Amino acid sequence: MAPRPSGAPTRPAAPSATGDAGVHNGVRRTGFPLDPVVTVDFGVIQRETSARTQKSANDPAEGPVRTCIGCRRRELAVDLLRVVAVDDATGRNAVTVDVARRLPGRGAWLHPDPRCLDHAVRRRAFGRALRITGSPDITAVIERFASTETLDSPGQENR
């Protein structure tokens, strides 16, 4: 044990169970007769910060982070599509893409990648993420992905 610097505050250990109030030469002893005197040097103790505190302290201006329901990766909300459940004319739940990110209700987040959509469909993640019973109608989301795929396909920009 390293020597304590002079003037550093110390705190004695808990009192002993022997009834002598646990004090010996001004220092409290633990209840075990073979334990040495325990002193704590508060000048040496360093507190660890949580991962949440460290992350927010490093980059507070990045924005909110959301989890994709397809691949389960965390990304900034501006990089993901927000989908919400709305009631359609038949009384069933339908999932639609919230382009303006202003529709009421619980939203779920999805990468604009067809693989993430495929993963979310196979895992039946829309119902769980939006907390709705049954399998929702996701044709609007599929159509949105199909329309962006045709615009992004190579060789189509000059036609």
From TrEMBL:
One Pfam family recorded for the sequence: YlxR
Q: Output the InterPro entries linked to this UniProt entry.
A: YlxR, YlxR-like_sf, YlxR_dom
Region described as Disordered: 1-30
- Domain (YlxR): give its ranges: 66-142
PANTHER family with a match to the protein in the record: BLL0784 PROTEIN, YLXR DOMAIN-CONTAINING PROTEIN
Q: What's the protein here called?
A: YlxR family protein
Q: Which organism is it from?
A: Mycolicibacterium rufum
Give the taxonomic lineage as stored in the record.
Bacteria, Bacillati, Actinomycetota, Actinomycetes, Mycobacteriales
